[in-house]
Amino acid sequence: MLQGINLECIRGDRRLFSKVNFTLESGGLMQVQGANGSGKTSLLRMLCGLSNPAAGEILWNGTAIRTRDNDYFAMLTYIGHLSGTKDDLTVIENLQISSALAGFEVDVGEALDALERIGMAGREQLPVKVLSQGQRRRVALARLLVCKTTLWILDEPLVALDVTAVKLIQGFLEQHLQQGGMVIMTTHQEIDIQAKSIMQLQLV
Q: 88 Cβ partners below 8 Å, 6+ apart?
């Protein structure tokens, strides 16, 4: 279970949000919404431990993540709104290296299978610099299929994707939730996901 308790974010002399509270349990989806500049990405970065709230606490199974003495960070996969791929590496190299940096060794067979499932079959040996933005996004999202984590934190995961790819990612999200996983995401696109519980967190 992931909880946010009275979270506050301050950037410079501006308070982006305050008193943000939520509880996310197994099988649950939380969609973070708000206008540009409302702090959506800042909140996601807090939940990943990449920044600290100005006030409040984030708990994983009752323990504050700031203590870093629990299994929280090994249980999450974060994909930001930028794909984070390396232009001079091939598609398969990008997937294997990004997974390794996250603590998951992925062999060639696993990588090829994930890339096929996400619609990148036949492009595995291409350098990422020749891909479209949508294809780069698919490469980044392929990490969800090989890193066996419980919590997926996704910042605009559908950006640059075509309709076919959006439906594909929707299916992966639903399967993850049905298996007891949790998803926190921001998106400006309409997506219909079936989940045990769905929460809308509005930042104002």
A: 127, 128, 129
Q: What are 127's strand-pairing partners? A: 90
Confirm if 21 and 6 have CB atoms less than 8 A apart: yes
pLDDT (tens digit per residue) in 24-52: 999 999 999 999 999 999 999 999 999 99
The rounded distance, in Å, linking the Cα atoms of 186 and 188 is 7
Tens digits of residue pLDDT in 91-125: 999 999 999 998 899 999 999 999 999 999 999 99
With CA atoms as reference, report the closest residue to 144 among 114, 186, 168. Answer: 114
